[in-house]
Amino acid sequence: MPLYLDDEFIETFVYEEVAVALWAIHLHVEDVAVTPALALRLIRQYLQPLIPPEHWYVLNQKQPVTWNRIWMISSELASLLGRGNDPLLFEVGNAIELIHSHTTRPPREYTFATVIEVTYFLSMCGQLKIPVQSQIRPDREQRIDPFNFCSLCWRQPLPGRKLCAHHAPSTPLMAEGADKRAAAARYKSGIRQKEQFDKAVNRILTKEVTEFHEGLFTPVVLFPEQGIAAWLTERRPLLWQLLGEQQELNDGNAVGMLLDLLHSPDGLPSKAYQIYRQINQHLQKHPLLIWPMLIRAEGWHRCREEVRGQWGGKRSGAGRPVQPAIEPSATSPCTDQQPGAARGCADHKSQ
Ligand SMILES: [Zn+2]
Hints:
mainly alpha; 2 domains
């Protein structure tokens, strides 16, 4: 099992030194079976020098070396990011994740840890005694977790990855004609915003969970069956604005409109396309379960507004711009456009 990555795939890494290291590993294992021990040895040899020495301990823990351990390393590096927000570190983590997934065919998958908003969501449902079917099983072999989210947004990640098609630098959306630069720019801006995004989601979460408990488990915090428009206006105001044709929204079509806005499968590679469709069908059947996606999407757009506000705020008297925000350039911290697939990218609609 060599490393199944083609040259083009490797070239999409933003940091050349990471691409070079992956290249070296790729050549090294061209004709050999990659065991977890060999993978770790090569990671230490080629990727460890790229990260600050204070993080080397992550690669040198005395634990049995398994594929899951390799995956955990990439995840631990990603969690260090919250403290330092170092995009190179993130990319090294990503390279390790690729070594984990792409040393077999089809790529090796891992069960992802649950994000905190899902934990709280399930706990609120439990307190209200609402049963939650949180796993989709289209057939005997396949399991889909609708609460598995891209680390940088609200979308389902690509199979076996931590990033969605919109944010993965190495898997540009097909509809965009493989525009690598745009994909790399989205990825970079996503990493820059990650800490702020997590905080924005957390603020909404804290407020609503507190409200839920102080109101003695009032269910209004969760996605309602009726009065969805009013709920969105109050609790997810940015998504409400992005919906555009709000007057058309009613309790019957609200979930469909939200999914069109946030989670359209158009332009995705075929396996991801199927997964998106199955998740969307599941959410249509169980509207309550859209809550975690909405809190992440609202948090993402709030974070984005904050970043824009910071730019505007530098001038006196200019808080949030009254005019539509200036479209950021390809290198700005906000670049997260998805031309040609506007429905999948909510912010596209707002401009
Ligand atoms: Zn994403």
